[in-house]
Amino acid sequence: MPGFPYLPQTGRDIDEMLEVVGVKSVSELFRDIPGKFEVDISIPESKDEFTVLRDLSELSKNNVSLNDLSVFRGAGVYKHFVPSVVQAIASRGEFLTAYTPYQAEVSQGTLQMLFEFQTMICELTGMEVANSSMYDGASAAAEAALMAVRVRGGKKILLSEALHPEYIETIRTYCFGSDIDVETVSFDSETGQINIADLQKKLTQDTAGFVLGYPNFFGIIENLAEIRTLIGENIMMIVSANPISLGMLEAPGKLGADIVVGDAQPLGNSPSFGGPGLGFFASKESHIRKMPGRIIGETKDSDGRTGYVMVLQTREQHIRRNKATSNICSNHAFNALVASIYMSVVGSEGLREIARRSFDKAHYLAERIGKTDHVRLVFTGPFFNEFVARFDCDLKEFNRELLKEKILGPLELERFSEEMKNYGLICATEANLNEEIEFFAGRLEAIG
Amino acid sequence: MTIFDKSTEGRTGFYLPREESYGYEPSDTLPENSVRKESPLLPQLSELQVMRHFTGLSKKNHSVDSGFYPLGSCTMKYNPRLNERIAGLEGFSQIHPYQAEETVQGALEVMYNLQNSLCEITGMDSFTLQPAAGAHGELVGMLLMKKYFELKGENNRRKVIVPDSAHGTNPASAVMAGFEVIEVPSNGNGRVDLGSLEEILDENVAGIMLTNPNTVGLFENEICEIQEMAHKKGALLYYDGANLNAIMGHARPGDMGFDIVHLNLHKTFSTPHGMGGPGSGPVGVKNILKDLLPVPVVRFDGSKFSLDYDLPNSIGKVRSFYGNFGVFLKAYAYILTLGGDGLKRASEMAVLNANYLRARLSKLIPTAYPGLCMHEFVLKGSKLVSEYGVKTLDVAKRLLDYGIHPPTIYFPLIVDEALMVEPTETETKEALDAFADTFERILGEAKDDPNILKAAPQKTAVGRLDEATASRKPKTRWSKDT
Q1: Which part of the chain is the Glycine cleavage system P-protein N-terminal domain (chain B) (predicted)?
Q2: What ipTM was assigned to the predicted interfaces of this complex?
Q3: Which end of chain A is more exposed for a tag (fewer CB within 10 A), N or C?
Q4: pLDDT tens across A203-216, in order?
């Protein structure tokens, strides 16, 4: 059978087209490329759809799917129930195969969806303006740090040591690029919250912003209001939040945050080995011109009909080039669609219930652990749905045992710090049914 | 009507399993000021209402699935559904980034193989898949340059040269890595002007960023000279892979002397643009830079795959985890499906389609540069302004009435009233003919009654929108009162 996948040109088409172009052969079209660069790449020859599907399906079986496990691991990527309608809508080609909405008149679906997404993010975070998405939570936090320097001046950013380690590393990299100093603030080894004395000590005239997690990496809820008061008005408080937790926790905007970022993967997006996630970015109206990323606004057409367009494009790289607020061009609009559908289906009550169940189950687990002899809770601070426990046994070995029983156990924190050997970060969500919780609690009690 | 206007208090489309609560109340353990007082105002709708709302929105979008999309520099080729199916397989979509390595061997194998395929296609030595988009890849590339010269003790290299025809992301990315951007002008043939380059290329230059073929769709045929000039001065050469679709299987940036390459999997390798993303912007480097790549790097020891974090000179991470894995799968499936022969053929057909369309349109409106093009070409709309008083914008808006997405307009900046056309290889000759016919018809309208163009579009969901007011007093969220 002749032809190549996805290429529609017949032999006759090619002949006719070459004639119109005025060349004898296709290779003549490449005459500007110096001959010495001609290559034969060594990639296996084309395959039919059925073979590719079979081969990659086989390969996918070399991974253990979360759907076959009880998952007690989060740390930035979470397993939640996702209603079927989310995938059903998101698979529509009109969303999937559209480009950035440069031509607003034929992109009203995209633009209105993103306008609604921005509204939902503002609602969750308690902020006034949100952009239409960033790559992920870590890069959003890094962009927030850069924005703090743009807004406040100064050249130092403070980071909580209890911020997600991958976020810390990402912010460091971005700050290396922009020649911004980074200093970390330790956490209180008892509560797991920010060490206020250390924070106080590190606040200097040239500090532009302070980035912290809410809940933090250890699941602990920081006292944002107190931190806000302490750092004063001249330093931006940048809060990285788990959006699910905001169904139950006070909105950071209400507690004095200047910028709220985070990863909205938990809002209906699949874990997908950590990407694509969904960065969100929200701030105050007064800072909108300093924000990175695409922002959608409402307007009217010539007949007075309501429509949506990209606004403040003069901040962006395609207009402002080397003076842009960021280099971001592609974002994660499709993941924003998924999150919008998810938030629309679950609604405010649904989100509250998901948050409360996650909280309830995690707290029950923690209480059961509190009664065991060989696993101890590490921090006393208030937490949402994750907490750290110290194991008397070899946690790696224990996790191997758990996996045999189809449990994805606590994340071994040793991977981030040698001092945390046999410390595990345990997570529960509404997707852990009570029977799973009971079974897991039983396994923890049986240690020793 | 927004989804918030359709909301009704107490309605829901969401049902959780019936389960007993363990009875832990937030107010029992959390400080009072951490407990949410007011629920976020999310819409309350039935599942069917949600379905209809979004289906309605989807109908207001132009997409590759619905019609021709010749947006220059964006490579709006068909997005094969096999790829979506593969990315959706449970064993790929439902895996956690912090699972033990032995439980994600399939995922690591995909990444490893994709890295190797990209090395082979581009002629580079190593790849990182971490960057989430093209611009993110550019940032990585610029950070690699910065780190490289820092390690060499050449901290004087603070400048990066970018052609005046470059994408806006190039200068913006260079600035984010702390560089000063110097523009090099193009010559009358649409290529980098070597004389000007010579003048600005000194010991303080860290690198030159090039797109090849460049944004006017022409191959920088003096690339050998540019490469020699750059390396002689100790600068690095950066390849923006936005236009790789023109040369896959024919020529490789690595062989042309580029030290750093970024690719756009969402352009060249058929993964969908998703209204703006997620994309994926892998970065390839020559051996001199491989130890500086972001961590982790995927390794294979002959029996198992692993993630290596031990690169002491790494620039660090530019995002969490390993990259947009869901996108890798689609690109990998595409490479497997097309194979080496198909990739080469895809480039040939992309260039043939572009040249055919160029030949047809150049009879109607001048091209910015004479002669053959690669995968895209630029038309000059300035004559329409002088002759009929219609702008490129008007032509673009009129195309919308005919169900066609306009080319990229007003870019590159070096061409007056530019229209940048990239048909891609997945379009039929009939589609190209229909576009050329439509274009001819619109030019006829411009001659007979330019107001038709100025009043366009008429057949879309909304007419021309007032962007100026929207930006002056931005309303960026729905609120109850308005």
Answers
A1: 31-294
A2: 0.98
A3: N
A4: 999 999 999 999 99
